[in-house]
Amino acid sequence: MKKLGLVLGAVVLIGLAGLVWFASGWYGSADVEEDTSFIVPQGSTLTAVARLLDEEGLIDSSDSFLLRAKVLGSGDPIQAGEFLIPAGASASQILDTFQNGQVIRRFVTVPEGLPSIMVWERLMAEDLLTGEVPVPEEGSILPDTYDFERGESRASVVARMQAAMDEYLADSWAKRTSKAVVKSPEEAVILASVVEKETAVPDERRMVAGALSNRVRIGMSLGADATTIYPITKGKPLGRRIKISELRDKNPYNTRAIAGLPIGPITNPGREAIAAVLDPAETKALYYVADGSGGHVFAETLDEHNRNAAAWRKLRRERGEI
Q: Shortest CA distance to 256 belongs to which of 227, 295, 213?
């Protein structure tokens, strides 16, 4: 009887040891020596993922991982995407990461006033995105920072950028004031794109929008060099002085040669530029010229503007710029 008790005790101890070993293989540290990114392909089964983990040396065995997952793990489905497995993670933590963790997000930034050709170049240069995409329609992208997953299509990222613009524009248009001269959301984007190119000083946007709105209201040309450059470079820097023939070219963008708004946007305007044209400053100014400090000085009359322009040319000569 005593001998039987010893045998039973030994069996229990062996069983307990086996349970401890089995559990430690699930809750104890796996073979992740450093933070590691791991991709779960779309449509993968847990079996396929376990084999990938085994192949990459992140677990001891795919079979033991699957057995422990079946006995001790959750039955929740795994997600597709790229995940970060931290150093020292257990098999249990790895499975939980795939089931409930956040995929790694990466970011692409579209600055205010970036033309669509350069948005396209930025997306095509991002080698973690996939697929071809045409150059987006000018003015259809809302400048912002957008996140994306490894392997996501460029088309889906562009779609989010355009949806963001549509949403912001609809919301802003509904809040426009009576001072706005534009007659439609499309015109708002066109004028905002000119405002975006005319000043780099945030505090000036509403004032520039006010002066340009005044010009539109009386049928005066906007006289914006950026509209002359756009048909030549699609918004990229010209890299030289504008030719007289280009200033006089009566193409539908060139507001040096035509009155009113250009035929379309000349860049992707940001939120503040759009807001500025929908609520421009209340001003009688029709003219503005650089003041030498990054901003502009505004004028209501041509005589006043000519004096300001002369002062600007004098300052440039003193600086050796002309």
A: 227
Which one, of 65, 99, 70, 67, lies nearest residue 83 by Cα? 99
Per-residue pLDDT band at 26 (split at 50, 70, 90): confident
Q: Residue 11 above 80 pLDDT? A: no
Distance of CA 253 to the CA centre of its chain: 27
**Contact in structure between 198 and 290 (CB atoms under 8 Å):** no
What is the rounded (10 degree) CA torsion for 42, 45, 49, 54? Answer: -150
Using pLDDT thresholds of 50, 70 and 90, give the confidence band for residue 243. Answer: very high
- Token digits of residue 227: 């509209």
Distance CA 226, CA 235 (A): 8
Decide: 226 and 266 in contact? Cβ < 8 Å.
yes
Return the pLDDT at 4.
57
What distance in Å separates the CA atoms of residue 288 and residue 211, rounded to the nearest whole number? 8
Average pLDDT, the chain: 89
C-alpha 92, offset from chain centre: 35
Give the long-range contacts of residues 117-124, CB within 8 A, separation 24 or more.
117/234, 117/235, 117/236, 118/235, 118/236, 119/161, 119/268, 123/154, 123/157, 123/158, 124/154
Token pair listed for 231: 């048909």
Q: What element of type H or E holds 37?
A: strand 36-40
pLDDT digits (tens, 9 = 90+) for 60-81: 889 888 998 888 888 889 888 8
- DSSP code, position 252: T
Is the whole-model pTM more than 0.85?
Answer: no
Q: Report which secondary-structure segment, H or E, holds 83.
A: strand 81-85
Q: What is the pLDDT of residue 12?
A: 55
CA angle 165, 251, 236 (to 5 degrees): 50
d(CA 95, CA 78): 8
* Alpha carbon 274 to chain centroid, angstroms: 18
